[in-house]
UniProtKB/TrEMBL annotation:
<dbReference type="GO" id="GO:0006302">
    <property type="term" value="P:double-strand break repair"/>
</dbReference>
<dbReference type="InterPro" id="IPR014555">
    <property type="entry name" value="RecF-like"/>
</dbReference>
<feature type="domain" description="ATPase AAA-type core">
    <location>
        <begin position="175"/>
        <end position="335"/>
    </location>
</feature>
<dbReference type="GO" id="GO:0000731">
    <property type="term" value="P:DNA synthesis involved in DNA repair"/>
</dbReference>
<dbReference type="InterPro" id="IPR003959">
    <property type="entry name" value="ATPase_AAA_core"/>
</dbReference>
<dbReference type="GO" id="GO:0016887">
    <property type="term" value="F:ATP hydrolysis activity"/>
</dbReference>
<dbReference type="GO" id="GO:0005524">
    <property type="term" value="F:ATP binding"/>
</dbReference>
<protein>
    <submittedName>
        <fullName>DNA replication and repair protein RecF</fullName>
    </submittedName>
</protein>
<dbReference type="Pfam" id="PF13304">
    <property type="entry name" value="AAA_21"/>
</dbReference>
<dbReference type="InterPro" id="IPR027417">
    <property type="entry name" value="P-loop_NTPase"/>
</dbReference>
Length: 372
């Protein structure tokens, strides 16, 4: 899958206009309320475009009017949410807005896909591979022919998710699969009824689900399929010296427990503290059998004891060898540890006059003092 090379966000919540080049490990630190989570959520929305759920996702947030940038717009600026993802030489952009009550076949105040574009940026001149406006779209097929889809797309649908023909439109298929493969992890539930505390079905599970519900199966897959839990056990011992993670796949389900040096019997998942369970879930996300091409973490330090932050940073650095990492945090300590172990300089997010910005970010997408 091509790596994410740049993102663009316009008019989404506190982000008025932002374009940024993306590296292997991307760490953003800032206080509460400056808009860190809005950067994270904008990436989630891009994935929802690939899954065909972006308009529903915006509606679940309150609709376009609720999530639209509330500040002033210049005369030439559209009143639309615009999101862009560059994946290698391919650039996908989607624009969301409200319907024209007279001409658009949509429900009142419904979130609409107004435009979509897929562009090949390689070569001396960009080539438009897909252009969608309203219900119609044209695409350039693999043999260079122009294919037109007239009045076939509903305002709630994306061309990215709806037009599925990898033979004719391989680039569109590549972008859809790349975005759909992303994983987002935002504070796993660890209360008494959390699925983290329950056994997982006895199914080979190469990648942790976003809610962590299959954590025990992810651990069992490392033990039974890869037959190598070295890095997992190393990360456990680093956080809890002298401890060992016991893994079981008994033919009915998968379970795990933590053996500590102080107590003779192991602690099953139901008895682990919230912080310990959160840390183990993050190990499942970062050290699983197969990592997605892109992993986004939103404040992973939540519920963790400060002593766990450096072990977590080491695990994130290890994961970055197999996946692209995007992390937002308000923990200076975690950001510093990641800088030490992964070599990723943390970017500071600020809010000024109601809009979110990133220190040192230039209009070209590079940061001051760096070249891509």
């Amino acid at each position: 899958m091509p790596p994410l090379s740049a993102i663009g966000i316009e008019n989404y919540r506190s982000v008025h206009k932002l374009f940024m080049r993306v590296g292997a490990v991307n760490v953003f630190v800032g206080n509460n309320g400056v808009g860190k989570t809005n950067l994270y959520k904008s990436l989630e929305l891009l994935q929802q475009a690939a899954l065909g759920r972006i308009t529903r996702a915006v509606s679940e947030e309150g609709g376009v009017e609720s999530v639209m940038w509330a500040g002033d717009l210049k005369v030439h600026e559209k009143k639309r949410i615009i999101l862009r993802a560059d994946l290698g030489d391919l650039s996908y952009k989607i624009e969301l807005g409200l319907p024209n009550p007279i001409s658009d076949p949509a429900l009142p105040l419904e979130t609409m896909v107004r435009e979509e574009t897929l562009t090949l940026m390689a070569g001396r001149k960009p080539v438009v591979l897909m252009q969608r406006k309203g219900p119609s779209a044209f695409l350039r097929s693999s043999n260079g022919a122009r294919v037109t889809y007239d009045n076939e797309l509903l305002p709630s649908e994306t061309a990215l998710a709806s037009i599925r023909d990898g033979g004719q439109f391989p680039e569109l298929d590549l972008v859809r699969r790349a975005l759909a493969d992303w994983r987002f992890y935002h504070t796993f539930r660890s209360d008494r009824d959390s699925q983290l505390r329950r056994p997982s079905p006895n199914i080979t599970t190469p990648t942790l689900s976003s809610d962590g519900s299959d954590l025990a199966a992810v651990f069992a897959t490392l033990k039974e399929i890869r037959k190598d839990t070295y890095f997992l056990q190393e990360a456990v011992a680093d956080a809890f010296p002298g401890s060992n993670l016991l893994l079981e796949a008994n033919g009915q389900d998968c379970r795990f427990s933590l053996q500590t040096p102080e107590i003779r019997r192991p602690f099953p998942s139901q008895e682990l503290s919230d912080g310990t369970l959160q840390y183990l879930a993050l190990l499942g996300a970062m050290l699983s059998y197969r990592l997605p091409a892109f992993i986004a973490l939103n404040e992973p330090e939540a519920s963790l004891h400060p002593d766990l932050l450096e072990p977590l940073a080491k695990v994130i650095a290890k994961a970055s060898e197999r996946s692209q990492i995007w992390l937002v945090t308000h923990s200076e300590q975690l950001a510093d540890h990641i800088a030490e172990h992964a070599g990723a300089y943390p970017r500071r997010i600020y809010k000024e006059n109601g809009h979110t910005g990133i220190d040192g970010l230039k209009i070209t997408g590079e940061f001051v003092g760096e070249e891509y």
